[in-house]
Specification:
Oligomer: single chain
CATH superfamily of the largest domain: Di-copper center containing domain from catechol oxidase
Number of domains: 3
Radius of gyration: 25 Å
Strand order of the largest sheet: 1-6-5-14-13-8-9
Number of helices: 22
Strand content: 15-25%
Number of strands: 14
Bound molecules: CU2-O2 cluster
Length: 649
């Protein structure tokens, strides 16, 4: 079998300068004589998947190279998935890499990158391989056109350069104050990776079931939405309002981003009304889908395509709702409920040219890499979040018995160290943004960005176990903005929906008092920075590729763990709930494993979700009587302040 350092090297070289011919001589040699269908015994399906793709190639049906790619384009997605299917049916790495080299030269580059990323994530053959950060593979989707143009000039004049990337827009646009969130390269990596970990096109025949995929869709986007609202509050802005099909979109957007091939991303003026989009959907269709979904919530059941009713008035209802709203292939009735979310992305992406009069390429909303740059992303997701909330609010509040943990007293929750945010400079590599020109050597090209970070700290908790025996406990920590943009304290039931999940972990509690310290860097919602592409190249060349902490790129960047504070402090309620781990935990000995670092938002790769409770428990359901929450001895709350250091580090 092939050592992982070798595989890493292959993946690096396949992705380096994706728009150029393969540089790596070794890869070219191993694939030099490769014909995909020559030996069908290298595939688990007898070569069926690859036969399909070869036919498309021979019939000249495949999308050309040097053309934009969007996952939301049905035909383009179909082609990318044909290649994904080939990778997933390879019996060994040699088959995988040979096909990669072969199809890299034949297929559209965007399709190829997408197929390779998703296959490396989902195939056992690629275990241990770390994917380079997409912002250093396809930088066009993560930086603005001004930077790209400067990089080209620098390359042609052979002058190394570092270019300062500004956030899109001007001070005249209030939205610019929070652009650091929607345009953060790490946040975008989290978002695009989540959609690769949990693709809407996933079928279990690829090898396994994606546990609670629909519920994760709700939860990961709910967390994005309320994190964005928390950032807005710290910047003196109101929370996002939901969009609606019959109302103006309000914010326009000028993306200042450019495709490698395909021109500028289209812009959209302020205050326009939704228009039907030719070949996609009518506004009327969107309203019908929405009302069918709202009816399902009101009735408490979904109508499956075989006419049966699926009860959603329980903990699992949210998972089914997520499936129908996104919609994924897990949806029990795509015919009837449609694809509200996916179509909405396209609808929003096309509002600048709804009838295709100007032959514009897809908008930023039509790529998961770029979607959060557009303020309408958060309006769209707030709209869907409110539909999910309608369902959650239709469930009965938790009873005292469902919240209690007999014998357990949560005495205190607090912080060791200071909750302090700041902006810092960070550089990433732009060399892959520009073409290799004959006779012109690579020069150093970097983009310099400002990004949010915070000082390290720990959560500290004291818990008394009055039972005679040790118990396994699930600790959940939430951080909830305390005041609205006018400084008024949130009503309890409004405030709880805005709670940010900070951590979830398991501990054995011995009888008596337990002092628990949990480092901010250990959080179950975050991941560290993805290693630079160059770091991965150097590591593979030296044969030293232990990147175990980077096994996944899905997760909020740890430096954005804390929402930005204010100079004089911004108030949050810090909430700890301690519940019975022997009831909650899916896996044995959950206190030993971390299930891949970011399991709260991204699950445990290929396994069942580690926590049996609904995501967001216990603040996911309405709480008409706050006294229940306050009187349960295993819950505790503390007001904390997050400060912001205004000097840039
Ligand atoms: Cu992640 Cu709309 O689902 O972008």
């Amino acid at each position: 079998s092939v050592p992982v350092a070798q595989k890493q090297k292959h993946v690096n070289n396949l992705l380096w300068k994706i728009y150029d011919h393969l540089h790596d001589g070794e890869l070219k040699t191993i694939a030099g004589s490769f014909t995909p269908e020559a030996d069908k015994s290298i595939y688990t399906d007898g070569g069926e998947a690859v036969h399909h793709l070869v036919q498309e190639l021979n019939d000249h049906r495949l999308l050309e190279q040097h053309h934009w790619f969007s996952l939301f384009n049905e035909r383009q997605r179909e082609e990318a998935l044909m290649l994904f299917d080939v990778f997933m049916h390879c019996k060994n790495w040699i088959c995988f890499v040979n096909n990669a080299v072969y199809w890299r030269e034949k297929m559209n580059e965007g399709e190829f990158v997408y197929a390779l990323y998703t296959a490396v994530i989902h195939s056992d053959l690629a275990e241990g391989v770390v994917l380079p950060p997409l912002y250093e593979v396809t930088p066009h989707l993560f930086t603005n056109s001004e930077i790209i143009q400067k990089a080209y000039t620098a390359k042609m004049t052979h002058t190394p350069g570092k270019f300062h990337m500004e956030f899109t827009g001007t001070k005249k646009n209030k939205e610019q104050r929070v652009a650091y969130f929607g345009e953060d390269i790490g946040m975008n990596t989290h978002h695009v990776t989540w959609h690769m970990d949990y693709p809407f096109w996933w079928k279990d025949s690829y090898g396994y079931h994606l546990d609670r995929k629909g519920e994760l869709f709700f939860w990961v986007h709910h967390q994005l939405t309320i994190r964005f609202d928390a950032e807005r509050l710290s910047n003196w802005l109101d929370p996002v309002d939901e969009l609606h099909w019959e109302n103006p979109i309000e914010e326009g957007f000028a993306p200042h981003t450019i495709y490698k091939y395909g021109g500028e991303f289209p812009a959209r003026p302020d205050h326009i009304h939704f228009e039907d989009v030719d070949g996609v959907a009518r506004v009327r269709d969107m309203i019908i889908m929405e009302s069918r979904i709202r009816d399902a919530i009101a009735h408490g059941y979904i109508e499956a395509d075989d006419g049966s009713h699926i009860d959603i008035m329980n903990d699992r209802g949210i998972d089914k709702l997520g499936d129908i709203i996104e919609s994924s292939l897990y949806s029990p009735n795509r015919q009837y409920y449609g694809a509200l979310h996916n179509l909405a992305h396209i609808m929003l992406g096309r509002q600048g040219d709804p009838h295709g009069k100007y032959d514009m390429p897809p908008g930023v909303m039509e790529h998961f890499e770029t979607a959060t740059r557009d303020p309408s992303f958060f309006r769209l997701h707030k709209y869907m979040d409110n539909i999910f909330k309608e369902h959650k609010d239709s469930l009965p509040p938790y009873t005292r018995e469902e919240l209690e943990f007999p014998g357990i007293n949560a005495e205190s929750i607090g912080v060791e160290g200071e909750l302090k945010t700041f902006f810092e400079g960070y550089e990433f590599d732009l060399r892959n943004a520009v073409d290799s020109a004959e006779g012109i050597e690579d020069v150093e090209l970097k983009s310099h960005v400002h990004r949010l970070n915070h000082h390290d700290f720990s959560f500290v908790a004291d818990i008394t176990n009055n039972n005679r025996n040790p118990v396994l406990a699930t600790l959940r920590i939430y951080l909830c903005p305390r005041r609205d943009s006018n400084g008024v304290i949130f009503e309890f039931d409004d405030g709880r929906w805005g709670c940010i999940e900070m951590d979830k972990f398991w501990r054995k509690l011995k009888p008596g008092s337990n002092h628990i310290v949990r480092k901010s860097s250990d959080s179950s919602v975050t991941v560290p920075d993805v290693p630079h592409f160059q770091t991965l190249i150097d590591a593979a060349n030296s044969g030293n590729v232990d990147f175990s902490e980077h096994s996944r790129a899905c997760g909020i960047p740890n430096r954005m763990f804390l929402p930005k504070g204010k100079k004089d402090g911004m108030e949050f309620a810090l909430v700890l709930t301690v519940t019975d781990g022997s009831h909650d935990a899916t896996h044995d000995n959950p206190e030993d494993g971390e299930h891949g670092g970011s399991h709260s938002l991204c699950g445990a790769h290929g396994e069942s979700y580690p926590d049996k409770r609904p995501m967001g428990y216990p603040i996911d359901r309405q709480m008409p009587d706050r006294r229940v929450f306050e009187s349960v001895p295993n819950f505790v709350m503390q007001i904390v302040k997050i400060y912001h250091d205004e000097s840039v580090h």
